[in-house]
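Chapter review. Work through the record for Aminoglycoside phosphotransferase before attempting the end-of-chapter questions.
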Amino acid sequence: MEEVEVVVAHSRRVTLRVGDVFLKVDVDPAHADVEVRAMALAPIPTPAVLWREPPALAIAAVPGKALGVLGAPSTASPAAWAAAGAAIRKLHDAPLPPWPGPVLEDLAAELDRECAWLLANGVLPAEVVRRNREIAEAALRPWEPAFIHGDLQITHVFVDGDEVTGVIDWSEAAPGDALFDLATLTLGHEERLDDLLVGYGDAVDRDVIRGWWSLRGLTASRWLIEHGFDPDAPGCEFDVLRARMGEP
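Structure tokens for Aminoglycoside phosphotransferase:
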């Protein structure tokens, strides 16, 4: 009998692994709808869908291992990061998925709300919130929509050697800002951005990527805290926000 591994568990979603099968249970069936449709459209390796019986979705594991984890240095080679960049570029150049994506005005309003909450609750020093709010402004500009993954955390990209073998967890996929994906993947691993851009192409605005690092850290913190995660763990969101304090 295979052991059951709890991959993620909170009040909205549970992901279990049994052998080579992942079972995802989500209270919102729209998430699975997007995930299945996005994986069918994405021109890069994705997991196979085994079956779906709402609210459960079963998908096959992908070979290889994650590019890294938040809070620890990535041991993947520069070539593996470049391969990830090339795969993301292929995704971003693909036709847009036929459903709406993030709205700039909504993101700006969310940033204001979350900064106010951080300050009101004394979660971070006011100067850290203020400085990162200032840096985040660079991301709040109109963008040319691309097919984005939408939650491209480092644990969602799998490699075997220097080859991308699969990208998982597509429930946030939508038309959106390509640089948001690049920022999400390199959050807490800023030193690997150059390696990523070898494969992606370096004609990107790094100030916007820095803006997304700050914006994601500010807006994700309350959700993480309320769902039992620790954004103050070494190398995680709070460290990313603090690191911006030493930048011009």
